[in-house]
Amino acid sequence: PVLAKPSGQTPIAAFLAGQTRKQLDALAEGIRLLPDAKAVVIEGHTDAVGSPQYNEQLSVRRANAVKRYLVAEHRLEAGRLRAVGKGELEPQAGHDSRSAENRRVQFRGE
């Protein structure tokens, strides 16, 4: 999900606002239904605006913020969640690499 950055908030705080929290809450329930041995990878992604180094760091912060939220708010086991940053390296198909649609977090089982 892509959210507008409200004034006075960091990009990460804005990312975890409103509708995103509702989606993460639903996702947490889905993770609970997985077998205990199944790990979940949280991938942070960015657009290509800014330097590659900044975008790599931002994607890691984004993934870690989601992991912290799932652990703190839903008591999911931290060891079951692995946060990784992909930076701007994997834009969504059909979108320009600078497009806001690339600012996202994706999940996959491991």
Overview of the structural elements:
- The protein is an alpha+beta fold.
- About 40% of the residues lie in helices and about 15% in strands.
- It has helices spanning about 10-15, 20-35, 50-75, and strands spanning about 40-45, 80-85, 105-110.
- A three-stranded mixed β-sheet has the order 2-1-3.
- Strand 1, helix 3 (about 50-75) and strand 2 form a beta-alpha-beta unit.
Produce a short descriptive summary.
The chain has 110 residues and is of the alpha+beta class. The chain has helices spanning 11-15, 18-33, 52-74, and strands at residues 40-45, 81-85, 104-109.
Layout of strands and helices, then pairs:
Layout: H1 11-15, H2 18-33, E1 40-45, H3 52-74, E2 81-85, E3 104-109
Parallel strand pairs: 1-2
Antiparallel strand pairs: 1-3
Percentage of residues assigned to helices: 40-55%
Structural class computed from helices and strand pairing = alpha+beta
First-residue to last-residue Cα separation: 22 Å
Bin the strand percentage. Answer: 15-25%
Strand segment tally: 3
Radius of gyration: 14 Å
* Shape label: globular
Poorly predicted runs of 5 or more residues: 1-9
Number of separate helices: 3
Q: Describe the strand arrangement of the main beta sheet, using strand numbers.
A: 2-1-3
Please give the largest β-sheet. 3 strands, mixed
- The SSE string, one letter per element, is HHEHEE
The overall pLDDT average reads 85
